[in-house]
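Q: Study each token:
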Amino acid sequence: MRSTRATSAIERLKIRSGNAQYSMARTGNELFFLTEGPGKPPLCAPLELDQFVAFVNGLGPQTPRRVSKLDVAFEKQLSKKTP
């Protein structure tokens, strides 16, 4: 289903924010919108899938990117090669 990406984004938002009430709805035109719970007003205008996922990913506290020692070493090598 196309809405799998949107559902995953909502689940990540619930984990990041600690608010299990977030839910999404889909209109007949295949547009998505976010609410903070059943019966509450929408938090955004109806959006297409990619725009909706970007909107949801931008909400709430962001999780820091995990960086391993290998990532740091690779970044260091890349910076050495650039003149």
User: Anything to note?
Assistant: The longest helix spans residues 4-17. Residues 32 and 50 are 10 Å apart (CA to CA). The helical segments are 4-17, 49-58, 69-81.
